[in-house]
Amino acid sequence: MRRKKKLIKSTQIIVAVFCALYGLGCNPFSEESRIRRLVAGLENPRNYDAFNKLNEIGAPAVPYLVEALRGDRHGNRARVVMTIGGMGYRAKAAVPALIKALEDSDPEVRREASIALGQIGGDAASAVDLIAAKLRDKDPAVRRNAARALGEFGAHGAKATGDLVRSLKDPDWQVRMRAAESLGKQDLAACGAVGDLIEAAKDKEPKVRESAVRGLGDIACGEEKSVPALIKALADENADVRRWSATSLSTFGDGAKSAAPALIERLKDADSTVAQEAAYALGEIGLKIPKIVDALITATRHKDWWVRAQAASSLKAVGNDSQEALERLIECLDDPESAVRQDAAKALAAFGVKAKIALPRLRDMVDADDSGLKSAAEATIAALEKTH
């Protein structure tokens, strides 16, 4: 390899001398020559160095990549499109070429063109209708990438909402999954699709159901329909669906108070990440009722520290009128896991003057080696010392 590099270098020097002697406008050491070599290097699918270096160069490399896109090497052109997409908004000059690539005879090029346009984002918004048309492509992979790309345009992609809704019925489950994801990324612009996402939450494929319940939370409108659907999804056989249902319910705040009983049940879920999200959702909903406080106090004794930490944090919002919650949080200051002690320390600030009994323990924590724990203790001490 070392000999090969020396040989290349020697050849470049010879070419440079030749060009100089005869007054030719060629320079193997120029930036243009370097970019052309990197673009040519994309022919090797394992040449990640070329991809990364072109990405670093950014916009100045785009004209050379567009030129290569007009070539006849199909595999290379797909990698050229991927490289353009990796530059994001810096590659906006390539939008016309990428739009043309949407109609390429090579399905791999068509697939990558949709994604690249999505990565460019708002500067490629003129392509939204054309990408939406790819949702009807005969190649399922092209349809998947088109559905995925439409989610990258945000509000600019709203005019494709109807196309994405239709794709929720696509025979390919990955297209349905990507369509649900992209509808969620349109936020309030997709409010009209709530009913369709609720139907998608019943899909036979768990990944589609997961994307649908996640989308309902991202859109966060139509709570009279969304919340009951998410409550039902909390009992799904798939843990990822249950977890995202809890997360999505948290986005509705007190509009999801009817979900409290189901969320309390999920605190005992066999999957601890579901229990963690249920604890988070109960804190965001913010109902200060004994049943929720008691359930979160119990959750601070969970076998997994991430559930204990989240339960302690949520007690800040719903348990700050409870003496039992106060006493339990003070006990949590001695939890074996630093993250639990830190969240308990932060939560105590919400209890006001009553929490001053924790000041001696909090002052001990100021000497901790853990910077996060020390910072949390100092902030709570400062807050409590101001209370009367």
Features:
single chain, 388 residues, globular, mainly alpha
Q: Can you describe this structure?
A:
With 388 residues, the chain is an all-alpha fold. 65% of the residues lie in helices and 0% in strands. It is globular. The relative contact order is 0.04. The mean pLDDT is 91.
Give the helix tally.
23
- End-to-end distance, in Å? 74 Å
Instruction: Name the average pLDDT.
Output: 91
Q: Structural class, from helix and strand content? A: mainly alpha
Low-confidence stretches: none
Largest sheet: number of strands, sense, barrel closure: none
Assembly level: single chain
Order of helices and strands: HHHHHHHHHHHHHHHHHHHHHHH
Helix amount = 55-70%
The global form is: globular
Total beta strand runs: 0
Rg, Å, rounded: 28 Å
The percent range for strand residues is under 5%
Topology diagram in text:
Elements: H1 2-21, H2 31-41, H3 48-57, H4 62-69, H5 74-86, H6 95-101, H7 107-120, H8 128-133, H9 140-150, H10 161-167, H11 173-185, H12 194-200, H13 206-219, H14 223-233, H15 239-250, H16 260-266, H17 272-285, H18 290-299, H19 305-318, H20 323-332, H21 338-348, H22 359-365, H23 371-385
Helix pairs in contact: 2-3, 4-5, 5-7, 6-7, 7-9, 9-11, 10-11, 11-13, 12-13, 13-15, 14-15, 15-17, 16-17, 17-19, 18-19, 19-21, 20-21, 21-23, 22-23
Short description:
This protein has helices at 2-21, 31-41, 48-57, 62-69, 74-86, 95-101, 107-120, 128-133, 140-150, 161-167, 173-185, 194-200, 206-219, 223-233, 239-250, 260-266, 272-285, 290-299, 305-318, 323-332, 338-348, 359-365, 371-385. It is an all-alpha fold.
